[in-house]
């Protein structure tokens, strides 16, 4: 039996050991425990109801529309007749099953492929027939082994021969290290790899009117203003609509999903995670605005650009001289 057909969805009701290979079949089964039958028969004087629509259709075909359809389901091998197609298929599967090439010596179960028989034998001898050639980890089915082998797959960069164990990390490396920065600012020469980044950067060099454009909070008695609409949206959700991200374990609430994920690491590892402090020695990049005049958001909102501040600085220096 392949892992695709494995019955991994188990009924959680006490005393019931039914298993299914599809989640929707388990959901339909749970309706029988709750005595919920959402599919009643609509024929007159019939009080039957079913938890599955296919069962209702079978009931109508075999009971109410038997004479109307005038269909006989007969076995082609033994000529035995049945009231519906499902019962005929069940009969053929149990009595006239086609002999498959691989047969279990213990329970006579039949399999189409050899690896399916090897996975099936785990039920009898407890031996996992498939193992990883790299780390010797054992698996019940061939599918589980193939899925595990992805962990050992590596991606090597063609430019610098760096090796990565994840495709996403490899792509991130290529974009950050080897992709050409094709968006270059004509004013200051700064280069960017994405168009959205240079659009955001160009607002620094735009005129005073655009610099002073802000997004004000629409709520009364709230005077907060933001230079980005996304920041305003986050402010409204957290401060006014009281949106909280709640931990399912300790009920702690946080203002963002990122803070909640950081908090969940405490429950997983048992220790408070500490952020790694970057320095120039362990990969921190040099500041691109080193030895340049800093312009804060408050100064931008006030309309004071770098050019204006430079003039003020030159004027102050001449006054002191």
From TrEMBL:
It is found in: Nucleus. Coiled coil: none annotated. Keywords: Metal-binding, Nucleus, Repeat, Zinc, Zinc-finger. Residues 9-38, 39-69, 73-101, 102-129, 130-152, 155-183, 183-210, 215-245, 245-267 form the C2H2-type domain. Its main location: nucleus. Pfam families: zf-C2H2 (PF00096), zf-C2H2_4 (PF13894). This is Zinc finger protein 316. It comes from Papilio machaon. The lineage of its organism: Eukaryota, Metazoa, Ecdysozoa, Arthropoda, Hexapoda.
């Amino acid at each position: 039996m392949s892992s695709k057909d494995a019955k991994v969805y188990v009924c959680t009701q006490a005393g019931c050991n039914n298993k299914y290979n599809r989640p929707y079949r388990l959901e339909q089964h749970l309706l029988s425990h709750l005595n919920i039958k959402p599919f009643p028969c609509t024929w007159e004087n019939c009080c039957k109801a079913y938890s599955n629509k296919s069962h209702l259709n079978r009931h109508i075909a075999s009971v109410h529309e038997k004479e109307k359809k005038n269909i006989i389901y007969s076995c082609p091998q033994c000529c035995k007749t049945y009231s519906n197609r499902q019962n005929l298929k069940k009969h053929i599967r149990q009595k006239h099953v086609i002999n498959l090439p691989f047969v279990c010596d213990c329970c006579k179960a039949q399999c189409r492929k050899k690896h399916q028989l090897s996975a099936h034998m785990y039920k009898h001898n407890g031996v996992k027939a498939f193992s990883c050639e790299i780390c010797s980890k054992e698996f019940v089915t061939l599918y589980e082994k193939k899925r595990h082998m992805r962990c050992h797959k590596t991606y090597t960069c063609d430019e610098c021969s760096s090796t990565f164990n994840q495709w996403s990390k490899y792509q991130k490396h290529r974009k950050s290290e080897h992709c050409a920065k094709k968006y270059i600012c004509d004013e200051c020469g700064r280069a960017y790899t994405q168009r959205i980044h240079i659009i955001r950067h160009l607002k620094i060099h735009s005129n005073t009117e655009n610099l002073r454009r802000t997004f004000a909070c629409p709520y009364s008695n709230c005077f907060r203003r933001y230079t980005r609409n996304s920041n305003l949206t986050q402010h409204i959700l957290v401060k006014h609509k009281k949106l909280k991200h709640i931990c399912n374990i300790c009920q702690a609430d946080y203002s963002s999903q990122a803070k909640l994920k950081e908090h969940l690491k405490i429950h997983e590892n048992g220790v408070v995670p500490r952020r790694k402090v970057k320095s120039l020695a362990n990969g921190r990049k040099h500041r691109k605005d080193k030895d340049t005049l800093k312009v804060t958001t408050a100064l931008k909102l006030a309309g004071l650009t770098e050019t204006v501040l430079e003039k003020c600085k030159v004027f102050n220096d001449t006054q002191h001289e």
